[in-house]
Design goal:
Blueprint (H helix, E strand, L loop, with lengths): L1 H15 L2 E8 L2 E9 L4 E5 L3 E9 L3 E10 L3 E10 L4 E8 L11 E9 L1
Antiparallel strand pairs: 1-2, 1-8, 2-3, 3-4, 4-5, 5-6, 6-7, 7-8
């Protein structure tokens, strides 16, 4: 019975213990962020605010998460976050809704790259 409990605790911590501490530089300012697994379907993105990001794909090498966000007077963007687990890099791209795409090159509202611990 004790072995079963130990195996359960080890399995639980490995499944729900994934966490990434990352940062990127924008306009010469460093922006740290934390991404921590919430459940089998999503992660919590924390950077001065929290959002739930849904798992779009995952392999041994990559984690891909994303979710819609409201920005600038109710404009909607869809943010996609790629984490390269081996190279410890992160790429975040937000694409704006089509009705505002003429104001943003190729409809890209934001695009940054950074590193993770």
């Amino acid at each position: 019975m004790i072995r079963l409990i130990i195996l359960f605790l080890l399995f639980s911590s490995s499944v729900f213990g994934k966490e990434y501490n990352c940062s990127y530089i924008f306009d010469e300012e460093n922006f740290p962020l934390n991404i921590k697994q919430k459940n089998d379907y999503s992660y919590v993105f924390n950077m001065h605010y929290e959002t739930e990001e849904y798992i779009l794909g995952e392999t041994d090498k990559l984690l891909i998460i994303g979710a819609p966000q409201y920005v600038e007077d109710s404009k909607t963007v869809f943010r996609v976050i790629f984490i390269d687990k081996f190279n410890k890099t992160i790429s975040i791209t937000s694409v704006i809704e089509p009705s505002f795409s003429q104001d943003y090159l190729r409809g890209i509202w934001g695009d940054v790259q950074g590193t993770c611990d």
